[in-house]
Amino acid sequence: MGLSSILDIAIGLIFIYLILSVIASEIQELIATVLQWRAVHLKESIEGLLSGNDKESENFSKVRELSNQIYANQLIKGMNHEAKGLLARFPRRLIQMFGFVFRLLRKWFRKSANLLPNVNISKEAIAKEVDGVFGKGNSSGPSYVTKQAFTSSFIETLQVPILTKLIARLRLEDFLSRLEENLKDKLNRVREGEGAYLPDWYKEAKGSVYQDLDSHRIGISEALDRLAEAAKVETRFELFEDPFRLQNPEENCYGLSREYKKILLRQINPTLLDVIQIILIFQDPNLEKVLARIKNRKFDDVKRIVKDERFLAQYSTKDPYMIEYVSQGLLLYTTFSNTEIGHKLIKLLGKLPKLPTYLQGSLYDLAKRSQESVEDIEQQFSQFQEDIETWFDNSMVRASGVYKRNAKLVALLLGFTIAVGANADTFHIVDRLSKDRILRETIAQSAETIAMNNRPNQAQKNPQKLDKETIEQINLAADAITLPIGWENSVTSLQQKKSIRWLFGIEVAAPVITFCGWLVSAIAISMGASFWFDLLGKFIDIKNVGKRPSSTPDNN
What UniProt keywords apply to this chain's record, in alphabetical order (predicted)? Predict the structure, then answer.
């Protein structure tokens, strides 16, 4: 047998693998689409990122609730292009119903077998199963989420931007209250004891500033400028006690120099770590127990109760950080609850989703790293977003590797199923191709025609996936050629006659050889259609090396 025949055998075998791989790829893509493998794996990977892959039931419920809220954000919700119409959505609804019944039956079986004695199939458990992976009312999710969309949705779910503004607004109120005391003293001295009351221009300026702050039209920096400008226009005396006012009088805006303004902004605007710490403090379950006892009480009663040492002593545990966290939380609560903005802040903190222990530590570490790397407060939040994006990217790289390994295993199982169903025995295929010259040349010619016609287009489009035109031509060729596979008598009769005598005289029966041939075919099918199409082109190039070129007018 010459080299050309050997190459034809290899090309024929590769082409048969290509045909079977196309079938496997289409089946696997259909299953992945119906069962939403990519979307489910992405959702579960994000939940693993948030929980540190902690499968504990308490943490899992927190993570599932948090991830559902992240997915409810419009940035991620807009990435989900769910099928429309009854016919398009019916298969998914059917699969979801079967999955729901299967999960309930599995719980019931485990409970009856005393494997999970605490499992209770209650209305709540049924509701959770009905909700599914993507939450209540959502039957599907996006297959891909950008790092920018996840980061923005995650930060908005934790209400970090709103909390930052509320804390800054609260600190501005505290600063102005101290400023008003000094202003009253100044005006009282000017009025020669007529009374300490705030002038109308200040009340109007402060009211206008608060209104614009609450509507997010201005920031703290603009608020300070407007108050200083109002003092300059109405009274022509300094509103702020600026220690730097004499250093650069040309830059001084009636008590608000550039240097003093920077100091005030650092005092009023919370740092990134301040916001994250407040979120984490109000996540403490011990603090929730304490706040439950003082909720809806008057401010003076709350201060009196908190000062009582016996009140905190009853909550002492072995955790050395417990008293510190609860004390900080009570201090913040008593500070916040005295104002209207503080009540909004407490209410917003109470509505935040419960964070698992792992995520609390990760948030603190990310915020601390961002704050240490950038000094400017506004840049800290930008750096925090970049760090979360990097954190998400690193996790998705690992998740992608896991998905590829799982897909490879599924491809191998599917390849074995196709190999058995089509009786694609590699050893029998090689034997037929080596003995049947007409079959060998027919398959090689079809393979060469398809490869030469579609290789340029395939290289330009997507080398990792065959296009529709190539797949259609492969399917047409498979229908036109009688391949040495299948369960016809012409194939099975030849397979049954095979036996191989190995070393030491051990004879391997035909069924064992057939099974090994199926196994080799399964491994080959799992390699994917694009792999075999690329390899087919290389073998055809080797075969065509040295051939005399066809005559052309130029050659003549």
Answer: Coiled coil, Membrane, Transmembrane, Transmembrane helix
pLDDT digits (tens, 9 = 90+) for 261-300: 888 888 899 999 999 999 988 888 777 777 776 666 555 5
Task: Write out the DSSP string of 457-521.
Answer: HHHHS-TTS--HHHHHHHHHHHHHS--S-SSSHHHHHHHHT--EE-GGGPEEPHHHHHHHHHHHH
Assess contact for 70 and 79: CB atoms under 8 A.
no
Residues in CB range of 442: below 8 A, 6 or more apart? 481
Phi, psi torsion values for 507, nearest 5 degrees: -100, 130
- What are 82's two structure tokens? 């769910």
Q: What is the CA radius of gyration of the chain?
A: 36
- Structure tokens of 237? 């005396």
Measure CA 101 to chain center.
28
239 contact partners, CB below 8 Å, separation of at least 6 = 179, 183, 227, 228, 230, 231, 254, 255, 256
Residue 125: exposure state from Cβ atoms within 10 A (0-12, 13-18, ≥19): middle
Alpha helices, H only, 72-193 = 74-77, 86-112, 123-131, 147-157, 160-190
DSSP 217: S
Residue 122: is its pLDDT beyond 50? no
Distance between CA atoms of residues 420 and 387, nearest Å = 50
For residue 366, how many other CB atoms are within 10 A of its CB?
Answer: 18
Cα separation, 118 vs 100, in Å, equals 20
Question: Among residues of the chain, what percentage have pLDDT more than 70?
Answer: 71
281 touches 329 (CB < 8 A)? yes
Other Cβ atoms within 10 Å of 57 Cβ, number: 9
Q: What is the mean pLDDT of residues 168-197?
A: 73
Please check whether residue 424 is in contact with residue 521, taking contact to mean a CB–CB distance below 8 angstroms: yes
d(CA 111, CA 107): 6
Structure tokens at 310: 């016996």
Separation CA 389–CA 209 (nearest Å): 35
Answer for the pair 424, 418: CB distance below 8 angstroms, yes or no.
Answer: yes
The dihedral formed by the CA atoms of 399, 400, 401 and 404, expressed in degrees to the nearest 10: 120
Is residue 319 packed enough to be buried (19+ CB in 10 Å), middle (13-18) or exposed (0-12)?
exposed
Question: How far is CA 238 from each of CA 107, 224, 260, 381, rounded to the nearest angstrom?
Answer: 73, 13, 13, 33
Half-sphere exposure of 49 (CA within 13 A, CB side): 27
The pLDDT of residue 2: 74
- Contact between 240 and 247 (Cβ < 8 Å): no
